[in-house]
Amino acid sequence: MSSRKVVLAYSGGLDTSILIPWLKENRGFEVHCLAGDVGQGAGELEGLEEKALETGAESCRVVDLREPFLTETVWPALRAVAVYEGRYLLGTSLARPLLARAQVEYAREVGADAVAHGCTGKGNDQVRFELGYAAFAPELEIVAPWRYWEIKSREDALAYAAERGIAVTATKEKIYSRDRNLWHLSHEGGALEDPGTAPPDDVWTWTTSPEDAPDTAELVTVGFERGIPKSLDGQALAPVTLLERLNALGARHGAGRVDITENRLVGMKSRGVYETPGGTILYEAIRSLRALTMERDTLHLCEQLAPEYARIVYNGQWFHPAREALDALFAEAARPVSGEVRVKLFKGSATSITTTSPSSLYSEDLASFTMGAGFEPAHSEGFVRLFGLPGTVARRVAAGGSA
Fold this sequence. Notes:
Blueprint: E1 5-9, H1 14-27, E2 30-37, H2 42-45, H3 48-55, E3 59-64, H4 66-79, H5 91-110, E4 114-116, H6 125-136, E5 141-143, H7 154-163, E6 177-180, E7 185-188, E8 218-225, E9 228-232, E10 235-236, H8 239-252, E11 257-263, E12 269-275, H9 277-293, H10 296-314, H11 321-333, E13 339-346, E14 349-356, H12 364-367, H13 379-398
Parallel strand pairs: 1-2, 1-4, 2-3, 4-5
Antiparallel strand pairs: 6-7, 7-12, 8-9, 8-13, 9-10, 11-12, 13-14
């Protein structure tokens, strides 16, 4: 038995399944596998330990990370209303930091010399995993076979698996690369590599087609405390249960489908198709609640910083001081963001229709078209003149006059 040990980030999918024999045959490692349960479903986790051992691993551990995944990464990103390039709700990006941390913890437990992952040299996940390793165990060797092995495509990987009798779910006919967790389901590869081709019907595996969704709308009320979801329809729920119920509702009504061409960190554009049913409902709800409860300048500041927060998370810098500093700001800004939002689900849409909060900053007297106490219309004249003064002076000078 080899004296060198490696802990592999293991999913049981095509890429990580073939890594077990490759690490043994080409690097002489004793292979230990770590799989994180982030809500990918029993179908992907069932029999995972047995499969890893049959493929040649010395050990395999499955760690339940579902609640930490939500409370440590997803909920803070939701509180920040972080969206990458205006559309991607960061499902894969938010899971990788916890998987990397758990992998390092297992590496220390078994006395490993190295950690390994099955990410390609073109993808974002290599950065997310490796920055996680660096944050907790920079002394460990990192093995990333996709950068230098003889396998160059998923077709090559399928052939390699077939030669060694490794069972995988991918086929040459159905060759999408998928990543599922409690927050989302992503699809890449195959026909999706051509942005000019509409996603085939077999891509969508979670959400109902909006055309086939119920003809009757359904309402759900989401309760928040300080920007964190806590209840549905008045019932307090644990994080995992809350999101699972929202996912079922959203999926039934076809909510949360997006088809994106995004800019990867390494430079190229890539196309991803995502299903985020529960997350789409939550983002719709928290936007409405923030609008009601956040003071204007604070809200605008959060809106300016949210894309930067999303970029940092997308780029794998979850454990970076900049992300932690932004989190502190968003946590403070969200102190008044408590209340309930009623969301209507219908034919692929999730739309807020009512919002209530004990911290509401809305004043009917001030907002009404009927002039009431607390606002003096005559004050507006001076305000408008002063507000427009810089532009008025600039226009006058541009026309040949003097300041």
